[in-house]
Amino acid sequence: MIRRVLIANRGEIACRVMRTCRALAIETVAVYSEADADLPHVRLADQAVCVGPAPARESYLDIERILAAARATGADAVHPGYGFLSENAAFAEACEAAGLVFIGPTGHAIRVMGDKAAARQLMAESGVPVLPGFDREGASDDELRAAAENVGYPLLIKAVAGGGGKGMRIVEKAAAFDEALAAARREARAAFNDDRVLLERYLARARHVEVQVFADTLGNTVHLFERDCSVQRRHQKIIEEAPAPGVSDALRAALGAAAVKAAEAINYRGAGTVEFLLAEDQQFYFMEMNTRLQVEHPVTELITGEDLVAWQLTVAQGQPLPKRQEQLQLSGHAMEIRFYAEDPDNQFLPSSGLLSHVRWPQRPGVRVDTGFEAGNRVSDFYDPMLAKVIAVGADRNQARLQLAQALRETEVAGIQHNLGFLARVLEHPTFAAGELSTRFLDDHAITTGLDPAQHHLRLLAAACHALAAPSDSADPWARLQGWRPQGHRQDLVVLVDQEQEYSVRLRQDDNGLALSVDGGDWLLARADTDRGAFQLGDQSGQFSAARDGEQLYLFDQGFVLRWLVNPVRTGEQGQAGRGFAAPMNGTLVANHVAPGSHVKAGDAVVTMEAMKMEHTLRAPTDGQVLELPFSAGDAVSEGALLATFVADGE
């Protein structure tokens, strides 16, 4: 019996495996790199071992270090998760040689399915449908060019050792073949140290439909229905769902039977996924088999009620599958998004940094699988996926609406991310209708910004939150500190974003609460300060916000808006008797006075540039500037002391 499992992975999937192990009273061992020492999976495990520095090749991909960690902690099994070493045949065999149970298939099965050409040939021999193509081992560029004419255009050049969309190029016509071939080989060589490629007919409007399979060591193989993973960006899945929309019972049975046949052809063991292209005429064709647990496995768990990690542990201990095919039932619909730290406005480039604020949705029918929390640093050494948000409903539309609402309730600040973009995809009418293909994002322009017509409403919500101070009063307006001689409350907050500075004034007079933004005036009916709603005349909206020092984050429809807050009533950023702290990362532009200088309230002391704008920090009162640690041109980090200051009379 397995009693202690080392999880050879990090973050979200490590936490996911630990959850099931804990439920089954199995101890867990975490491994981590030096960059990941503060991640939750390290703390949640019964034991944790550092396996090296941040680069994956020196830590998570170092087989000997992983095995040494297993020996040192007395682990008797290894779960590889997904990514890293999960589809490395040598790792599976090394675990077995070390007397460790590898919770996955045999090295032979991994090796066969990892070679796309060999897998394609085996499937064709086993009666599993494959696309027209050319997969001869060691073919030269000239042979591939000649074969392309027989395969026909458009075609797909695909790395033999590939995965994750790497080493893959779509070729529309013969004139573009040579350039695409060179690029595919170059990328495959860099990613896999193997530049072999094969050719396949490209189906422009196909869907990506995959089938979850499971096999034990006693000759039993079942499928747990299909998933649709058609919505992809650069061949990377971003939204998955189960069951696949528009798939009839007859087609579902045929897909399942073909997937089981594929698994049986290699005497498979454990969890695997057989991926197919589903053409517009409902014919399907084998693409590849992933010999591990998939990222998107939660949607299958939610429609079947099964714990797939528990199934993996059962099979790894030599026991029969928990259920026979006829005992497996499909119920409801589930949908998942992959939450990436990336910038949709900058070609989806990865984003790294400190997670200053995190709040996940808490609602029935929604599940969040993550390995990050507020205070963690997102590293640029690893895959940018931070979490998966999954929703389940009685039908597809209910699951979609549940998921869209969950994204609106998710709050993550400190990095750029794709939640707002994904919310737009979920709300697109074509997606809502279930009209999917792998070209969905190519065919439909999904905007990444917020509606500018709502900007003043967002400024209002931000100002309300920025002006709120701790108080026993439930009335946010009782917390305003500014007063006019006439007795009417009034306050001003300056909000600075990446484009400009806004002066927002709130005042309470005999007619109620009025709002002024850069010269425009409105009467405010209602507002809340943290998570709530606001109304401005006949316009209204919802918001939630979080404050982190001088930074303010406003969360709206999956997007996050960021401002630097400089309320006049707090004397700008200076603090009497202490100093001036940099409100964010930036560059010092100028010191306006010399050390030892006496300044008047409001005098400029230092100016820094951040968020593409200059920010001048001024004296809060009369006093003396003692030290100026930085010079013009110096890079400064958030919180760095830019000047020390003593107020007169102190």
UniProtKB/TrEMBL annotation:
Residues covered by the Lipoyl-binding domain: 575-646
GO molecular function, one term: acetyl-CoA carboxylase activity
Record has Nucleotide-binding as a keyword: yes
EC number: 6.4.1.2
Domain Biotin carboxylation, first and last residues per copy: 1-446
Cofactor dependency: biotin
PROSITE patterns assigned to the protein according to its UniProt record, in alphabetical order: ATP_GRASP, BC, BIOTIN, BIOTINYL_LIPOYL, CPSASE_2
UniProt keyword annotations, A-Z: ATP-binding, Biotin, Ligase, Nucleotide-binding
ATP-grasp domain span: 120-317
Pfam family, any one: Biotin_lipoyl
Designated name of the protein: Acetyl-CoA carboxylase biotin carboxylase subunit
Species: Isoalcanivorax beigongshangi
